Fold this protein.
Amino acid sequence: MRRVVVECSIRERDVGSFVAEVQRSIRPIEKTLPAGYFIEYGGQFENQQRAMKRLGVVVPVSITLIFLMLFSGLGTIRSALMVFANLPFALVGGILTMYLLGINLSVSAVIGFIALFGAAVGNGVVLVAFFNQLRQDGLTTAEAVRKGCELRFRPLLMTALAMLLGLAPMLFASGSGSEIQRPLAAVVLGGLVSSLFLTLVVLPAIYHIVESRRERAELKA
């Protein structure tokens, strides 16, 4: 089988959008090709498509496993769902950082989101588990939320700062491999910042609303 190879190097844009533009440009030409002739796209684009298909299976499986571990660790679906609600908080920062830095979605960015989910869930578990412990010690929901945020603010901040300082050099990398390091670091760094802030503000509020309603329902019963 004979073939004609056209190679090119891509700079300052992602492979996916470039190939999509090429496909739109040569679509009229493809319709006029003789029988037996076809066009294929290989190289980095082919590898990216293959990796994205695998990640399409890995990401849902990872999220499911995270939820199952939360349920087994916290003991109730209610607590697991409250911690699981921390994931959108992390997504906000990761997506916003990619937008501000002009980084396109890639395989390394998706892997960064998976790593970010683990870090965000860890922060949520630390907070919700401590709330539950304080309530078991006799504190009301409002007291447990207030005291838990005060006592767990420093540990959560130190954990986030350690990860931020460790990933910061990857964000400013410019040498070989930076195209893989920068998207991953940007997603994790931005997601950690938003997750930390929203975990200490929104998650306690959600916990207080849900648990207060449950307490009132139990008292009425």
Remarks:
- The mean pLDDT is 82.
- The CA atoms of residues 74 and 171 lie 35 Å apart.
- DSSP finds seven helices and no strands in the chain.
